[in-house]
Amino acid sequence: MKPLLSVIIPSRDCLAFLPDAIASIRRQNIGAEGIGAVEIVVVDDGSSDGTSDYLAQAAAADPLLRTIRGPARGVAAARNAGIAASLGDLIAFLDADDQYLPDALTDRLALMVADDSVALTFADVMSVDPQGRLVGYQFDYWPLFRAFLAGRSGLVPLGENAFAMLLAEMVCGTSSVLTRRSALEAVGGFDERYRISEDWDLWLKLARHGAVWCSTHRATRYLVRPGSTSRNMAELARTMRQVFDAQVPDPGRIPQPWRGVAQARVRIAEAEVAMVEGRHLAAMGRHLSAFAAAPSLVTAKKAAADGLRLLRLKPPVT
């Protein structure tokens, strides 16, 4: 039987977390055929921690668990390989150190089965630290998106400003995403040139391709781990700039307030890199530019702090 849904899990040296990720998928109750309607495709991206042996045993006991092993090529290439090997018309993504919460996909699966114009759906995410302590919730963190929801619950269409919303704020967590194979094929999947921000780039492409909906149901438990790829600020700032410039050749076409917030977010990332590297004048310039795009007290304070650092670096007057 062809699966209704394929869940793609890229994994590199995540054996400590991977069994729980797989188990969280198998706990879902999806469709009239039950959990058997879900295929799991795990892409072992060059692991050296025993992942391949574990997956061989797990796949032998689960006919709908498929595994791919290859050299380390990065998460974008791993997800693309998983998509290519999968069979479902609907595709979801779950990172190996994350877990689905109960009924993570049910409402959005029904929506996407009923309406083939929907290219992308995502849901709220609960972030926790390695000790299991709550860090926060995705939708609560981003002020523009919180204002857009305005207390609504359930399934919500993003409408004509979906691209601008996803450009401005990182509300779309990868491990909550549900999309469709035809849309991924139409936009070319993940861009393998990016080590970080490859997911943001894809969501923007999908937002241009079809309708985008969100669910306020908290779908995913996201683990915030020190030293993860997303914590590499220099690489993050570089790829954010590349994605922004590629996806928004004419910023003036993006409506406010999303345009200013998106521009500010990229410039703040660049400012943080400059500050770490000791380029305090450049940091102040990027913070001031961010403030000009989207004025905020936080950005103003950061620019002022940059100025104070510059004053301290000046040689004393003799």
How would you characterize this protein structure?
The protein has 318 residues and is an alpha/beta fold. Helices cover 45% and strands 19% of the residues. The protein has 13 helices and 10 strands. It has helices at residues 18-26, 51-61, 75-85, 106-114, 138-141, 143-149, 162-168, 181-187, 198-209, 233-247, 258-276, 280-293, 297-313; strands spanning 5-11, 38-45, 65-70, 90-93, 99-100, 118-128, 134-137, 155-157, 178-180, 211-223. Strands 1, 2, 3, 4, 5, 6, 7, 8, 9 and 10 form a 10-stranded mixed β-sheet that branches. The chain is globular. The mean pLDDT is 93.
Question: Keywords, please?
Answer:
alpha/beta; 13 helices; 10 strands; 45% helix
- Summarize the main sheet: 10 strands, mixed
Radius of gyration from the CA trace? 21 Å
Query: Which of globular, elongated, flat, extended, rod-shaped describes the shape?
Result: globular
- The count of helical stretches stands at 13
Which class best fits the helix and strand makeup? alpha/beta
Question: Into which percent range does the helicity of residues fall?
Answer: 40-55%
DSSP strand content? 15-25%
Global mean pLDDT = 93
Sketch the topology as an H/E string, one letter per element.
Answer: EHEHEHEEHEEHHEHEHHEHHHH
Low-confidence stretches: none
Number of strands: 10
What is the first-to-last residue Cα distance?
83 Å
